[in-house]
Design a protein that fits this description.
Layout: H1 10-16, E1 21-22, H2 23-31, H3 33-45, E2 61-64, E3 68-71, E4 75-76, H4 78-85, H5 94-111, E5 117-118, H6 126-136, E6 140-143, H7 151-164, E7 170-172
Parallel strand pairs: 5-6
Antiparallel strand pairs: 1-4, 2-3, 6-7
Helix pairs in contact: 2-3, 3-7, 5-6
C-alpha cells in the first residue's frame, strides 16, 4: 500500500521523492500499533551517550532485515523497502544476521562501556536476542513488563507509558526469564 504508485497519502508521496521518508515513520505505518508504540516510547525515553554520534543518532535504532541497526530518522525510498522485503529475518540467513552483527558491534564501540542498550523488540524469540546478547552482554536490557506480552500488548503498553510520562523498569536480558504468564489485558485508553 505505501509503495503503490497510486497511493496519494503524504508518507507514500514522500517515499516516491528522491529524499525518501524516515525509516521509523515507514515501519510505524507498515507495522501498526506495535512499532508505533516502540518508536514513540524510544523517542520519549532514549538517552543516547552522544546525540551527535551518527551511529546512535538520537539513541533510537531500528533493526532492519538487511541493513542491521539504523537510526530511526534514516531516510529510505521504495528501493530500500523492496530490499527489506527480499530478506528473511532468520538467524540462519547471513543477509539478515551479518549486517546486524556488524552494526551492533559498531554501536557497542560507539556507545562506550557505560551505556546500556534497551531492546524493545521481541524477547521471546531468538531472532534479535541470539544476535545482540553475545555483543552487548549484561548491558542489553529489556522492560520486565514485556514478559508474557504479545506484540500488540507491548505496543499498547509503550503508548500508554508515553502518554503517562512513565518509563518502564528494565532488567538485563542475560539469564532472564523471557517467557511467562500472560498479564491481564491493558485497560482501554480514555479519550481526553
Amino acid at each position: 500500500m505505501v509503495v503503490a504508485p497510486s497511493a496519494g497519502f503524504p508518507l507514500a508521496r514522500q517515499l516516491r521523492e528522491e529524499a525518501g521518508a524516515p525509516l521509523g515513520d515507514v515501519f510505524s505505518f507498515v507495522s501498526g500499533l506495535y512499532f508505533r508504540g516502540k518508536l514513540a516510547y524510544a523517542r520519549r525515553f532514549a538517552r543516547p551517550p552522544d546525540p551527535e554520534c551518527p551511529i546512535v543518532s538520537g539513541g533510537v535504532l531500528v533493526i532492519t532485515p538487511n541493513a542491521g541497526l539504523r537510526p530511526a530518522d534514516t531516510m529510505i525510498t521504495h528501493d530500500a523497502i523492496r530490499a527489506f522485503a527480499a530478506v528473511s529475518i532468520d538467524l540462519a540467513n547471513p543477509r539478515y544476521r551479518e549486517p546486524l552483527v556488524r552494526t551492533a558491534r559498531a554501536v557497542h564501540v560507539a556507545a562506550g562501556p557505560d551505556c546500556d542498550i534497551v531492546l524493545l523488540g521481541s524477547i521471546a524469540s531468538g531472532k534479535y536476542v541470539e544476535v545482540l546478547l553475545p555483543i552487548f552482554g549484561d548491558r542489553l536490557l529489556f522492560p520486565v513488563d514485556f514478559i508474557g506480552r504479545g506484540d500488540m500488548s507491548r505496543g499498547g503498553l509503550m503508548l500508554r507509558c508515553v502518554l503517562a510520562g512513565h518509563e518502564l523498569e528494565y532488567i538485563t536480558l542475560e539469564g532472564a526469564v523471557r517467557h511467562g504468564e500472560r498479564p491481564p489485558k491493558l485497560a482501554p485508553l480514555r479519550k481526553p
